[in-house]
Amino acid sequence: MHWTFEKVFWGAKAGLDMRSVKAFLAEGYYRLPCTLFEGYYRSVSRPGDHDDLYCRINKPFPDALLAQKPEGPFALHFSGGYDSSLLAKLYDSEEVDYIHFVGPESAKARVLAATLKGRLHEIVMTPEVFIQEAEEVLPQLREPYAYHDVVFAYIASKKAKELGHSLVLTGDGGDPVFGGYNVGVDSAEAADIWKTLEPNRLLGLKTFQPLMHVVLETWSKATLSPEERTPEKLFLRGYFRELGMPEEIVLQKKVPWAGSVGMRSDPRVVSHMRTMVDESDHRWIKEFCFAEQPKIGLLFRQYGLVKWLEANYGKPLDKAEVQELTEQVHRLNAIDQAQARQEASKARLRGLLPPVLLQPLRNVRRRLRKR
User: What CATH number labels 50-260?
Assistant: First the structure.
């Protein structure tokens, strides 16, 4: 059984869509069907036998995962966290290679790997390697990606290809199923599915993300209690004990994948990203103002967007083009700030007036506008 997600694009590019650019920088994604270009759109399809699964299961969990077990060799991006550990335990065989980045989760990953038949391969990430691979992969993506993890996934999949694999599995999708949260509006926009899909497409590898099957999230929403669907993934703790998993895996805490926090704060990586943004013709992206400053990943998003724009929007830009883009940003900032002030004024009014008076005031305002 194999299915995946695929992006489909259509339309004619007619300049940058500044709303989408701002959304990407602020939130890490922009809503379907938008892209970063006006007049150019996207959707997401599910090629393969995704829907055939329903004919092969009696209950969604764990049958849906067991029915998706691949035949033959594959590589698994293996952090040692809940989701990759679940797939490692259910899909283990002598033909599997587990690819792991040395970091905060290594101790528990090694404990679990010692109980498995497959082989554990450890990768030591350095700032120099991160920068080199980021410079290689980011311009080639079909759309810019918001988080550092895409570089880790690219390196891990390179290792999988080096080991002779054509199929890569990941635990992407476990957060909405077992943790009750996700990035983006739905699975088609969720950041985590594309961090592996896009690098693997570039490398000519197939990607399989069994936890992304829609039946699993539907099952969790209908079956698990709110207390079980939290970042602590309490349901999985109980299930792991049924499987006889090591206590280091059962009682672990949710942490960022594969040490990406270290690269996020490393002085050499930070300095490189800032230099690339500041010296680019697309440094105009720094002019965006946000109602709330993004807490995580803004510098990487700026850096990744610059590398992507340099490859996909055209370079070099002349002074007039840079000035026009900068002015577009300033105009959008002014519109958003005016709207924010208007909303704040409405909120203050709602706080001062009792609800019974608000509707008559609205009616008066509508009549005045019609005159």
Answer: 3.40.50.620
Q: Is 131 strand, coil or helix?
A: helix
- What is the C-alpha separation between 362 and 127, in angstroms, rounded? 58
Q: What residues does each domain of the chain span?
A: 50-260, 319-370
- The position carrying tokens 């390179």 is 158
Residue 300 CB neighbour total at 10 angstroms: 25
Find the radius of gyration of the CA atoms of the chain. 23
Helices and strands (H, E) in the chain, number of each type: 16, 7
91: phi then psi, degrees, rounded to nearest 5: -110, 10
The structure tokens listed for 10 are 């259509």
Q: What is the pLDDT of residues 350-360, one digit of tens each?
A: 676 666 666 67
Helix axes 149-162, 191-203, angle to 10 degrees: 40
Neighbours of 329 (CB within 10 A): 20
**3 state SS of 77:** strand
Report phi then psi at 220, rounded to 5: -65, -40
The yes-or-no verdict on residue 232 having pLDDT over 80 is yes
Angle at 257 between CA 198 and CA 167, to 5 degrees: 40
Contacts of 186 (CB under 8 A, 6+ apart): none
Q: Which residues pair with 3 in a beta bridge?
A: 48
- For 136, the token pair is 């290689």
Of residues 212, 216, 134, 202, the one with CA closest to residue 171: 212
Q: How far is CA 171 from CA 144, 212, 263, 361, 369, in A?
A: 22, 8, 21, 53, 55
pLDDT digits (tens, 9 = 90+) for 11-50: 999 999 999 999 999 988 888 899 999 999 999 999 999 9
The answer to whether 250 and 237 have CB atoms below 8 angstroms apart is: yes
Whole-Å CA distances, 123 to 120, 160, 273, 330: 10, 12, 23, 44
Q: Which of 74, 66, 68, 71 is nearest to 99 (CA)?
A: 74
CA trace torsion 34, 44, 311, 289 (10° rounding)? 40
